[in-house]
């Protein structure tokens, strides 16, 4: 059976379903170019999608992999995490073979984006599944005549069975900005990162792959082009305050995000940039 790509309705949103011959599955919504589900061959769901997520198009969908562009978080004057995660993207390319399926979604400037951010651009998100691997590659091109800068991230919500029993390895020795503690700069001195309270950290210039361990399964996490890693979990009080997240939602998710946030990306006229996050189910 060959790999397939088909258009589906997902909770009222137009989406694509990618299935490989080996049984890997991905669902990606055209609203926000947001990957909402990834199941490796013979495995379990590896992305967290809130059961209270809104699919009416009025906001970003809580879970999966929202695309933050052209602003990460509140690091600028734009709406939180920018406008890409709530924009309507279009299908640019579709390709599939025996062992893989690939789609590329595109977003260009419009009257609506220029009202918020006055720059011509083209963004593309490539989504590739192959074996037990998910590759997400964001490319941004400056299609105008003037230089601009931006910050960006793939805001990946990973599904975990119990966050307090999860261990994130690979961040030892890196500096991070601790948003929970008044944006203080600290250095990670532990062999592993354990989530035992609200966590919101921006790790800077991370150069090694990460490994998320939990019970009998692991997930390899690697980034190219994205220099930073964000680790976020809202914990108890923040979960209760978020209307599209169950009160116990924090127990079953951990955001490990590939980001370009510590230093903005600068693009001259005609220049382009790309960043990739790769997840490998182990």
TrEMBL record:
Tell me what this protein is called: Putative glucose-6-phosphate 1-epimerase
Please give the superkingdom of this protein's source: Bacteria
What SUPFAM superfamilies does UniProt report for this protein, alphabetically? Galactose mutarotase-like
What organism is the protein native to?
Thauera aromatica K172
UniProt-listed Pfam families: Aldose_epim
Which EC class does it fall in?
Answer: isomerase
Record flagged with keyword Transferase = no
- The residues responsible for catalysis, as annotated, are 155, 257
MF GO annotations: carbohydrate binding; glucose-6-phosphate 1-epimerase activity
Per the record, the similarity remark reads:
Belongs to the glucose-6-phosphate 1-epimerase family.
* Highest classification ranks of the organism: Bacteria, Pseudomonadati, Pseudomonadota, Betaproteobacteria, Rhodocyclales
Enzyme Commission number: 5.1.3.15
| GO biological processes | carbohydrate metabolic process
The UniProt keyword set, sorted, is: Isomerase
Catalyses:
alpha-D-glucose 6-phosphate = beta-D-glucose 6-phosphate
Can you cite an annotated GO cellular component? cytoplasm
């Amino acid at each position: 059976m060959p790999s397939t790509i088909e258009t589906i309705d997902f909770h009222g949103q137009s989406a694509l379903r990618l299935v490989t011959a080996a049984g890997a599955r991905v669902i990606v919504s055209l609203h926000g170019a947001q990957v909402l589900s990834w199941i490796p061959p013979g495995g379990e769901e590896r992305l967290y999608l809130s059961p209270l997520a809104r699919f009416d198009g009025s906001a970003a969908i809580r879970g999966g992999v929202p695309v933050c562009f052209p602003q990460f978080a509140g690091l600028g004057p734009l709406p939180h995490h920018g406008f890409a995660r709530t924009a309507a993207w279009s299908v640019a390319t579709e390709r599939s073979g025996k062992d893989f399926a690939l789609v590329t979604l595109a977003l260009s400037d419009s009257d609506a984006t220029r009202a918020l951010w006055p720059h011509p651009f083209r963004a593309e998100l490539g989504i590739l599944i192959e074996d037990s691997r998910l590759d997400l590659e964001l490319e941004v091109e400056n299609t105008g005549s003037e230089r601009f800068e931006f910050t960006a991230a793939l805001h990946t919500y990973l599904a975990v069975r119990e966050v307090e029993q999860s261990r994130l390895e690979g961040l030892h020795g890196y500096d991070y900005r601790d948003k929970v503690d008044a944006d203080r700069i600290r250095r990670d001195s532990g062999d592993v990162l354990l989530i035992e309270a609200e966590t919101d950290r921006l790790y800077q210039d991370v150069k090694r792959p990460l490994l998320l361990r939990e019970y009998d399964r692991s997930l390899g996490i690697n980034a190219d082009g994205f220099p930073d890693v964000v680790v976020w979990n809202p914990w108890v009080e923040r979960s209760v305050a978020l209307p599209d997240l169950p009160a116990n939602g924090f127990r079953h998710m951990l955001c490990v995000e590939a980001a370009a946030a510590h230093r903005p990306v600068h693009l001259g006229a005609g220049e382009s940039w790309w960043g990739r996050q790769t997840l490998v189910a182990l």
